[in-house]
Specification:
Shape: globular
Helix content: 55-70%
Number of strands: 2
Structural class: mainly alpha
Oligomer: single chain
Mean pLDDT: 92
Order of helices and strands: HEHHEHHHHHH
Number of domains: 1
Strand order of the largest sheet: 1-2
Largest sheet: 2 strands, parallel
Low-confidence stretches: none
Radius of gyration: 18 Å
Strand content: under 5%
Number of helices: 9
């Protein structure tokens, strides 16, 4: 898809995307509350479980990037919007491939373990509003990844799994850019609608996000992506 878009072979049109993306029969999808708790990275089984969970997130991230392109043609977004989200989808596919390859090296495969459907629930919740989609998916869900990934990398290094840590390092750096893309287009759309970005984001998170923003926050990475600490701190779960 990315190559076709960049070569000019994939036009922008009007589509009727499905409510849900196509999925293989595995993994078994469960509610988030029914998932077993992950327990660090101290043994091979736990590392496989961690990488499997991250691969599932990246698979959903591919679909979310594609869905934002197909779901909102009526928004009349400029070509650069499409350039950005095609690029995000392409990088998310790379991340899924890196994690799948590493799982195979450890004796696992995507689909071996159950996974939850929480990410696509966020897509369904925001399917009728581009601004809400931008507010929730990149600026809450992907931003959360910036908070938790450095600890995962540290845990893998302490377990002497440098290969897996290196994979997460690549993903972490590129996810900063993905959050930044979400922030840029959120600000663009707020300007078009004459909305105050801080007020609009807070209202949309309260309305559409099923949960709370959980500190501690990785302020360095979040600020690098263009996020404003006062805005997300105002919505944080009490310490």
């Amino acid at each position: 898809m990315a190559t076709a878009w960049r070569d000019g072979a994939l036009p922008v049109g009007i589509a009727a995307p499905p409510d849900r993306p196509a999925r293989p029969t595995r993994p078994e999808l469960r509610r988030p509350g029914d998932m077993p708790k992950r327990r660090g990275a101290g043994n091979p089984e736990n590392r496989i479980a961690l990488l499997h969970a991250l691969a599932h997130i990246e698979l959903n991230a591919i679909d979310l990037a594609c869905d934002i392109l197909a779901r909102f043609p009526q928004a009349g977004m400029p070509r650069h919007f499409h350039d950005d989200w095609v690029s995000v989808a392409d990088e998310e596919a790379k991340h899924f491939g890196l994690l799948s390859d590493r799982l195979a090296e450890l004796g696992g495969a995507y689909g071996d373990l159950p996974a939850h459907d929480g990410l696509w629930q966020a897509a369904e919740e925001t399917a009728g509003n581009l601004l809400a989609r931008l507010a929730i998916v990149p600026l809450v869900l992907e931003a959360r990844g910036l908070d938790v990934t450095p600890k995962m990398i540290g845990d893998l290094k302490r377990a002497d799994d440098e290969k897996s840590a290196a994979v997460l390092g690549v993903i972490y750096e590129e996810e900063i850019g993905h959050v930044g893309i979400g922030r840029r287009w959120f600000l663009f759309e707020c300007e078009r609608r004459a909305l105050d970005p801080a007020q609009a984001w807070g209202a949309l998170v309260r309305k559409h996000f099923r949960g709370t923003l959980k500190p501690p926050f990785n302020d360095e990475a979040r600020v690098a992506a263009g996020l404003v600490p006062a805005e997300y701190a105002a919505l944080a779960e009490p310490a």
